[in-house]
Amino acid sequence: MNIDGVEWKLPIESAHQLSASAGALSFVGGAGDFDSGGRIRNPSDLPKQVAGAVENLAAALDAESCTLDDVVRIKAHYTADCDDWDVIAALSRFFNTNPMPAISTVAEPLQPFDGQMIQLQAIAQRGWRSGPDVRSVARPIPSGRKELFGGKEVTAGLRAGEFIAVANLAAEEPDGRAYHPDEPLPQTHFIMQKHEETLAALGASFQDCIKMEGYHIGTTREDWVPLAKARLGYFRDPGPVATTVPFRDVHPEGAMTKIEVLAMRERRNGYDKYIPREDHWPERVWDWPIPAPYRQAIRLRDVIWLGGQVPFHPHTNTGIRVFKGQLAPQTRFTMGYVKDLLQPFGRTLADLKLMVCYFSSTGTEAETINFVRTLTECVGGVLPPLTLVPHSCMRDVNTVEIFCVAQG
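User: That's the sequence. What structure does it adopt?
Assistant: C-alpha coordinates below.
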Protein backbone atom coordinates (compact mmCIF):
# COMPACT_ATOMS: atom_id res chain seq x y z
CA MET A 1 0.00 0.00 0.00
CA ASN A 2 1.41 3.36 -1.02
CA ILE A 3 1.11 5.80 1.88
CA ASP A 4 3.30 8.59 0.53
CA GLY A 5 1.68 11.93 1.26
CA VAL A 6 -1.18 10.43 3.27
CA GLU A 7 -2.15 12.81 6.06
CA TRP A 8 -5.15 12.60 8.33
CA LYS A 9 -6.44 13.79 11.65
CA LEU A 10 -9.45 13.43 13.90
CA PRO A 11 -12.07 16.20 13.55
CA ILE A 12 -11.19 17.70 16.94
CA GLU A 13 -9.66 21.03 17.95
CA SER A 14 -7.03 19.58 20.28
CA ALA A 15 -3.55 18.66 19.15
CA HIS A 16 -3.31 14.89 19.16
CA GLN A 17 -0.98 12.09 18.23
CA LEU A 18 -2.13 9.38 15.82
CA SER A 19 0.44 6.82 16.94
CA ALA A 20 2.92 6.35 19.76
CA SER A 21 5.22 3.70 21.20
CA ALA A 22 5.91 2.25 24.63
CA GLY A 23 8.60 -0.35 25.07
CA ALA A 24 8.61 -2.62 22.02
CA LEU A 25 4.95 -1.92 21.20
CA SER A 26 3.40 0.77 19.00
CA PHE A 27 -0.19 1.92 19.29
CA VAL A 28 -2.66 3.58 16.93
CA GLY A 29 -5.92 4.99 18.26
CA GLY A 30 -9.15 5.15 16.27
CA ALA A 31 -7.99 5.23 12.66
CA GLY A 32 -10.92 6.03 10.39
CA ASP A 33 -11.50 7.14 6.82
CA PHE A 34 -10.42 10.72 7.59
CA ASP A 35 -8.80 13.26 5.28
CA SER A 36 -6.27 15.91 6.28
CA GLY A 37 -9.09 18.14 7.56
CA GLY A 38 -10.63 15.43 9.72
CA ARG A 39 -13.60 14.78 7.42
CA ILE A 40 -14.85 11.29 6.55
CA ARG A 41 -14.02 10.84 2.87
CA ASN A 42 -16.73 8.25 2.14
CA PRO A 43 -19.67 8.86 4.48
CA SER A 44 -21.86 5.80 5.17
CA ASP A 45 -19.91 3.57 2.73
CA LEU A 46 -18.40 0.74 4.78
CA PRO A 47 -16.20 -0.93 2.10
CA LYS A 48 -14.59 2.37 1.16
CA GLN A 49 -14.24 3.36 4.82
CA VAL A 50 -12.48 0.07 5.60
CA ALA A 51 -9.99 0.78 2.81
CA GLY A 52 -9.53 4.38 3.97
CA ALA A 53 -9.13 3.39 7.61
CA VAL A 54 -6.48 0.79 6.75
CA GLU A 55 -4.65 3.34 4.58
CA ASN A 56 -4.63 5.78 7.48
CA LEU A 57 -3.61 3.04 9.90
CA ALA A 58 -0.60 2.32 7.69
CA ALA A 59 0.30 6.02 7.60
CA ALA A 60 0.12 6.29 11.40
CA LEU A 61 2.27 3.17 11.81
CA ASP A 62 4.86 4.57 9.41
CA ALA A 63 5.57 7.35 11.90
CA GLU A 64 6.68 4.62 14.34
CA SER A 65 8.78 2.83 11.66
CA CYS A 66 6.16 0.08 11.45
CA THR A 67 4.11 -1.34 8.57
CA LEU A 68 0.88 -3.30 8.37
CA ASP A 69 2.98 -6.48 8.57
CA ASP A 70 4.02 -5.42 12.08
CA VAL A 71 0.44 -5.33 13.41
CA VAL A 72 -0.25 -7.96 16.07
CA ARG A 73 -3.79 -7.01 17.03
CA ILE A 74 -6.54 -4.89 15.46
CA LYS A 75 -9.78 -3.94 17.13
CA ALA A 76 -12.52 -2.79 14.78
CA HIS A 77 -15.48 -0.84 16.17
CA TYR A 78 -18.02 -0.82 13.35
CA THR A 79 -21.56 0.41 12.71
CA ALA A 80 -23.16 -1.30 9.71
CA ASP A 81 -25.81 -3.77 8.61
CA CYS A 82 -23.40 -6.72 8.57
CA ASP A 83 -21.76 -9.06 11.05
CA ASP A 84 -18.32 -9.73 12.50
CA TRP A 85 -17.29 -12.17 9.77
CA ASP A 86 -18.07 -9.61 7.06
CA VAL A 87 -15.83 -7.06 8.80
CA ILE A 88 -13.01 -9.54 9.48
CA ALA A 89 -13.14 -10.61 5.82
CA ALA A 90 -13.05 -7.00 4.62
CA LEU A 91 -9.98 -6.32 6.77
CA SER A 92 -8.28 -9.58 5.80
CA ARG A 93 -7.95 -8.38 2.21
CA PHE A 94 -5.28 -5.93 3.37
CA PHE A 95 -3.25 -8.52 5.29
CA ASN A 96 -1.79 -11.06 2.90
CA THR A 97 1.07 -12.41 5.02
CA ASN A 98 0.33 -15.41 7.21
CA PRO A 99 -0.42 -15.28 10.08
CA MET A 100 -2.82 -12.36 9.96
CA PRO A 101 -3.11 -10.14 13.03
CA ALA A 102 -5.62 -11.15 15.67
CA ILE A 103 -8.74 -9.16 14.71
CA SER A 104 -11.27 -8.26 17.39
CA THR A 105 -14.62 -6.83 16.31
CA VAL A 106 -17.25 -4.87 18.20
CA ALA A 107 -20.57 -3.93 16.63
CA GLU A 108 -21.49 -0.43 17.79
CA PRO A 109 -24.77 1.46 17.39
CA LEU A 110 -22.85 4.77 17.47
CA GLN A 111 -19.64 6.23 16.08
CA PRO A 112 -17.86 9.33 17.35
CA PHE A 113 -17.97 11.42 14.16
CA ASP A 114 -20.53 12.23 11.46
CA GLY A 115 -20.70 9.71 8.63
CA GLN A 116 -18.27 7.32 10.31
CA MET A 117 -18.90 3.56 10.15
CA ILE A 118 -15.63 2.04 11.38
CA GLN A 119 -12.56 2.86 13.45
CA LEU A 120 -9.47 0.69 13.87
CA GLN A 121 -7.31 0.52 16.97
CA ALA A 122 -4.02 -1.33 16.51
CA ILE A 123 -1.08 -2.72 18.46
CA ALA A 124 2.08 -3.37 16.47
CA GLN A 125 5.56 -4.67 17.21
CA ARG A 126 8.25 -3.75 14.74
CA GLY A 127 9.89 -6.74 13.02
CA TRP A 128 8.15 -9.50 14.95
CA ARG A 129 7.74 -11.71 11.87
CA SER A 130 11.51 -12.16 11.64
CA GLY A 131 11.85 -12.92 15.35
CA PRO A 132 12.70 -16.33 16.80
CA ASP A 133 9.31 -17.00 18.42
CA VAL A 134 6.24 -16.58 16.22
CA ARG A 135 3.26 -18.82 16.94
CA SER A 136 -0.37 -18.61 15.93
CA VAL A 137 -3.63 -20.45 16.40
CA ALA A 138 -6.27 -20.41 13.67
CA ARG A 139 -9.90 -19.65 14.42
CA PRO A 140 -12.58 -21.91 12.92
CA ILE A 141 -14.63 -20.16 10.23
CA PRO A 142 -18.30 -21.21 9.93
CA SER A 143 -18.76 -23.23 6.75
CA GLY A 144 -21.17 -20.69 5.30
CA ARG A 145 -18.59 -17.88 5.61
CA LYS A 146 -15.40 -19.59 4.41
CA GLU A 147 -15.80 -18.32 0.86
CA LEU A 148 -15.30 -14.78 2.18
CA PHE A 149 -11.67 -15.59 2.98
CA GLY A 150 -10.47 -17.39 -0.15
CA GLY A 151 -8.58 -20.00 1.82
CA LYS A 152 -6.97 -17.58 4.29
CA GLU A 153 -6.75 -18.56 7.94
CA VAL A 154 -8.28 -16.26 10.55
CA THR A 155 -6.11 -15.83 13.63
CA ALA A 156 -7.59 -16.67 17.03
CA GLY A 157 -4.35 -16.02 18.90
CA LEU A 158 -0.93 -14.73 17.92
CA ARG A 159 2.38 -14.77 19.76
CA ALA A 160 4.93 -12.23 18.55
CA GLY A 161 7.94 -12.97 20.71
CA GLU A 162 6.81 -12.18 24.24
CA PHE A 163 3.59 -10.39 23.31
CA ILE A 164 0.39 -12.42 22.86
CA ALA A 165 -2.94 -11.22 21.48
CA VAL A 166 -6.10 -13.33 21.61
CA ALA A 167 -8.96 -11.97 19.50
CA ASN A 168 -12.30 -11.38 21.15
CA LEU A 169 -14.88 -14.11 20.80
CA ALA A 170 -18.58 -14.59 21.21
CA ALA A 171 -19.88 -18.06 22.07
CA GLU A 172 -20.22 -19.31 18.50
CA GLU A 173 -20.70 -22.91 17.44
CA PRO A 174 -18.83 -24.30 14.39
CA ASP A 175 -21.96 -23.84 12.28
CA GLY A 176 -22.12 -20.14 13.17
CA ARG A 177 -25.01 -20.37 15.64
CA ALA A 178 -24.80 -19.10 19.22
CA TYR A 179 -23.93 -21.57 21.96
CA HIS A 180 -26.75 -21.61 24.53
CA PRO A 181 -28.58 -18.63 22.97
CA ASP A 182 -29.47 -15.82 25.38
CA GLU A 183 -27.68 -17.54 28.29
CA PRO A 184 -24.69 -15.37 29.22
CA LEU A 185 -23.22 -17.57 31.96
CA PRO A 186 -22.63 -20.74 29.89
CA GLN A 187 -21.50 -18.50 27.05
CA THR A 188 -18.90 -16.88 29.31
CA HIS A 189 -17.46 -20.25 30.30
CA PHE A 190 -17.49 -21.37 26.65
CA ILE A 191 -15.42 -18.34 25.62
CA MET A 192 -13.00 -18.53 28.53
CA GLN A 193 -12.34 -22.20 27.85
CA LYS A 194 -11.65 -21.45 24.18
CA HIS A 195 -9.23 -18.70 25.22
CA GLU A 196 -7.56 -21.07 27.68
CA GLU A 197 -6.97 -23.56 24.86
CA THR A 198 -5.58 -20.83 22.59
CA LEU A 199 -3.24 -19.51 25.27
CA ALA A 200 -1.98 -23.03 25.99
CA ALA A 201 -1.21 -23.56 22.31
CA LEU A 202 0.84 -20.36 22.42
CA GLY A 203 2.80 -21.53 25.46
CA ALA A 204 0.90 -19.39 27.94
CA SER A 205 -1.98 -19.38 30.43
CA PHE A 206 -4.41 -16.96 31.99
CA GLN A 207 -1.76 -16.20 34.60
CA ASP A 208 0.28 -14.51 31.85
CA CYS A 209 -2.54 -12.14 30.91
CA ILE A 210 -1.91 -8.44 31.25
CA LYS A 211 -5.29 -7.20 30.00
CA MET A 212 -8.80 -8.63 29.91
CA GLU A 213 -11.56 -6.81 28.07
CA GLY A 214 -15.18 -7.91 28.11
CA TYR A 215 -18.46 -6.76 26.62
CA HIS A 216 -21.88 -7.89 27.69
CA ILE A 217 -25.54 -7.09 27.15
CA GLY A 218 -27.08 -5.45 30.21
CA THR A 219 -26.48 -2.17 32.02
CA THR A 220 -27.06 -2.95 35.70
CA ARG A 221 -24.85 -4.38 38.44
CA GLU A 222 -27.17 -7.37 38.52
CA ASP A 223 -26.31 -8.03 34.87
CA TRP A 224 -22.59 -7.60 35.48
CA VAL A 225 -21.93 -9.54 38.71
CA PRO A 226 -22.63 -13.14 37.56
CA LEU A 227 -20.56 -12.69 34.39
CA ALA A 228 -17.76 -10.98 36.31
CA LYS A 229 -17.60 -13.87 38.76
CA ALA A 230 -17.51 -16.36 35.89
CA ARG A 231 -14.62 -14.53 34.18
CA LEU A 232 -12.53 -13.82 37.23
CA GLY A 233 -12.71 -17.45 38.29
CA TYR A 234 -10.15 -18.22 35.57
CA PHE A 235 -7.50 -15.90 37.04
CA ARG A 236 -5.35 -16.06 40.15
CA ASP A 237 -4.04 -13.10 42.09
CA PRO A 238 -2.15 -11.16 40.78
CA GLY A 239 -4.33 -11.08 37.69
CA PRO A 240 -4.44 -8.73 34.71
CA VAL A 241 -5.92 -5.26 34.52
CA ALA A 242 -9.49 -5.40 33.27
CA THR A 243 -12.17 -3.45 31.44
CA THR A 244 -15.80 -4.48 30.98
CA VAL A 245 -18.33 -2.43 29.07
CA PRO A 246 -22.05 -2.91 28.36
CA PHE A 247 -23.11 -2.99 24.74
CA ARG A 248 -26.21 -3.75 22.73
CA ASP A 249 -25.35 -5.87 19.72
CA VAL A 250 -23.46 -9.18 19.69
CA HIS A 251 -23.08 -11.58 16.80
CA PRO A 252 -24.29 -14.22 16.17
CA GLU A 253 -27.93 -13.78 17.17
CA GLY A 254 -28.44 -14.96 20.72
CA ALA A 255 -24.87 -14.18 21.81
CA MET A 256 -24.70 -12.12 25.00
CA THR A 257 -21.03 -11.44 25.65
CA LYS A 258 -17.57 -11.15 24.07
CA ILE A 259 -14.17 -11.42 25.75
CA GLU A 260 -10.56 -10.90 24.68
CA VAL A 261 -7.18 -11.05 26.41
CA LEU A 262 -3.63 -9.81 25.93
CA ALA A 263 -0.70 -11.59 27.57
CA MET A 264 3.08 -11.61 27.83
CA ARG A 265 5.38 -14.58 28.37
CA GLU A 266 9.09 -14.95 27.82
CA ARG A 267 11.16 -17.73 26.29
CA ARG A 268 14.24 -18.72 28.29
CA ASN A 269 16.57 -21.65 27.58
CA GLY A 270 13.89 -23.35 25.54
CA TYR A 271 11.17 -22.95 28.18
CA ASP A 272 8.21 -20.59 28.36
CA LYS A 273 8.38 -18.55 31.56
CA TYR A 274 6.14 -16.18 33.51
CA ILE A 275 7.28 -12.54 33.43
CA PRO A 276 7.08 -10.86 36.84
CA ARG A 277 5.29 -7.55 36.76
CA GLU A 278 5.56 -4.40 38.84
CA ASP A 279 2.23 -3.61 40.46
CA HIS A 280 1.02 -0.42 42.14
CA TRP A 281 -2.40 0.30 43.63
CA PRO A 282 -2.59 3.61 45.50
CA GLU A 283 -4.84 3.52 48.54
CA ARG A 284 -7.13 6.18 47.08
CA VAL A 285 -7.99 4.16 43.97
CA TRP A 286 -11.24 2.20 44.17
CA ASP A 287 -11.62 -1.59 44.41
CA TRP A 288 -14.30 -3.80 42.86
CA PRO A 289 -17.55 -4.40 44.76
CA ILE A 290 -16.91 -8.16 44.59
CA PRO A 291 -13.62 -9.93 45.39
CA ALA A 292 -11.50 -9.98 42.23
CA PRO A 293 -7.90 -10.91 41.39
CA TYR A 294 -7.59 -8.06 38.88
CA ARG A 295 -5.08 -5.25 39.33
CA GLN A 296 -5.37 -1.57 38.51
CA ALA A 297 -1.92 -0.87 37.02
CA ILE A 298 0.98 -3.13 36.08
CA ARG A 299 4.33 -2.58 34.33
CA LEU A 300 6.11 -5.11 32.13
CA ARG A 301 8.97 -4.44 29.71
CA ASP A 302 8.66 -0.65 29.92
CA VAL A 303 4.92 -0.64 29.22
CA ILE A 304 2.34 0.33 31.86
CA TRP A 305 -1.15 -1.11 31.44
CA LEU A 306 -4.05 0.51 33.29
CA GLY A 307 -7.41 -1.13 33.78
CA GLY A 308 -10.66 0.60 32.92
CA GLN A 309 -11.06 3.51 35.30
CA VAL A 310 -14.53 4.62 36.37
CA PRO A 311 -15.75 7.31 38.79
CA PHE A 312 -16.25 5.07 41.82
CA HIS A 313 -15.93 6.62 45.28
CA PRO A 314 -12.26 6.60 46.36
CA HIS A 315 -10.91 4.46 49.22
CA THR A 316 -13.84 2.02 48.93
CA ASN A 317 -15.17 -1.11 47.24
CA THR A 318 -18.82 0.02 47.33
CA GLY A 319 -19.13 0.51 43.59
CA ILE A 320 -20.99 3.79 44.16
CA ARG A 321 -20.30 6.53 41.60
CA VAL A 322 -19.51 10.14 42.29
CA PHE A 323 -21.15 12.90 40.21
CA LYS A 324 -23.86 10.50 39.10
CA GLY A 325 -24.82 10.84 35.46
CA GLN A 326 -22.59 13.90 34.84
CA LEU A 327 -20.16 13.23 32.03
CA ALA A 328 -17.70 16.13 32.38
CA PRO A 329 -17.27 15.88 36.19
CA GLN A 330 -17.05 12.08 36.03
CA THR A 331 -14.44 12.32 33.26
CA ARG A 332 -12.28 14.73 35.24
CA PHE A 333 -12.55 12.54 38.32
CA THR A 334 -11.70 9.39 36.35
CA MET A 335 -8.65 11.05 34.79
CA GLY A 336 -7.57 11.84 38.34
CA TYR A 337 -7.42 8.10 38.98
CA VAL A 338 -5.31 7.65 35.85
CA LYS A 339 -2.88 10.24 37.21
CA ASP A 340 -2.87 8.56 40.65
CA LEU A 341 -2.05 5.18 39.10
CA LEU A 342 0.83 6.49 36.99
CA GLN A 343 2.47 8.39 39.83
CA PRO A 344 4.00 5.38 41.72
CA PHE A 345 5.70 4.33 38.47
CA GLY A 346 7.28 7.78 38.18
CA ARG A 347 5.09 8.65 35.20
CA THR A 348 2.55 11.38 34.42
CA LEU A 349 -0.29 11.94 31.97
CA ALA A 350 2.33 13.18 29.48
CA ASP A 351 3.59 9.56 29.27
CA LEU A 352 0.29 8.17 27.95
CA LYS A 353 0.61 6.38 24.61
CA LEU A 354 -3.00 5.22 24.18
CA MET A 355 -6.35 6.20 25.65
CA VAL A 356 -9.49 4.15 24.99
CA CYS A 357 -12.58 6.03 26.13
CA TYR A 358 -16.14 4.75 26.39
CA PHE A 359 -18.53 7.60 27.15
CA SER A 360 -22.25 8.33 27.29
CA SER A 361 -23.64 9.94 24.16
CA THR A 362 -26.68 10.14 21.95
CA GLY A 363 -24.35 9.84 18.98
CA THR A 364 -23.70 13.41 17.89
CA GLU A 365 -20.29 14.66 16.82
CA ALA A 366 -20.78 17.71 19.04
CA GLU A 367 -20.95 15.47 22.12
CA THR A 368 -17.71 13.76 21.10
CA ILE A 369 -15.96 17.09 20.64
CA ASN A 370 -17.15 18.32 24.04
CA PHE A 371 -15.91 15.10 25.64
CA VAL A 372 -12.49 15.54 24.00
CA ARG A 373 -12.34 19.11 25.32
CA THR A 374 -12.68 17.71 28.83
CA LEU A 375 -9.91 15.17 28.16
CA THR A 376 -7.69 17.98 26.89
CA GLU A 377 -8.26 19.99 30.06
CA CYS A 378 -7.16 16.97 32.09
CA VAL A 379 -4.10 16.00 30.05
CA GLY A 380 -2.93 19.59 29.67
CA GLY A 381 -1.03 19.08 26.44
CA VAL A 382 -0.98 17.06 23.25
CA LEU A 383 -3.40 14.14 23.51
CA PRO A 384 -2.10 10.60 22.99
CA PRO A 385 -3.66 8.35 20.34
CA LEU A 386 -7.39 8.13 21.10
CA THR A 387 -10.07 5.54 20.57
CA LEU A 388 -13.39 7.26 21.24
CA VAL A 389 -16.43 5.01 21.65
CA PRO A 390 -19.77 6.75 22.29
CA HIS A 391 -22.30 4.60 24.12
CA SER A 392 -25.97 5.01 24.81
CA CYS A 393 -25.88 2.18 27.37
CA MET A 394 -23.21 2.81 29.99
CA ARG A 395 -23.78 0.99 33.27
CA ASP A 396 -26.20 2.47 35.85
CA VAL A 397 -25.36 6.15 36.52
CA ASN A 398 -21.87 5.79 35.11
CA THR A 399 -21.06 7.87 32.01
CA VAL A 400 -17.42 7.04 31.30
CA GLU A 401 -14.77 4.31 31.41
CA ILE A 402 -11.18 4.96 30.32
CA PHE A 403 -8.26 2.59 30.04
CA CYS A 404 -4.76 3.61 29.07
CA VAL A 405 -1.30 2.45 28.12
CA ALA A 406 1.75 4.46 29.12
CA GLN A 407 5.50 4.46 28.57
CA GLY A 408 7.05 2.63 31.49
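The radius of gyration is 20 Å.
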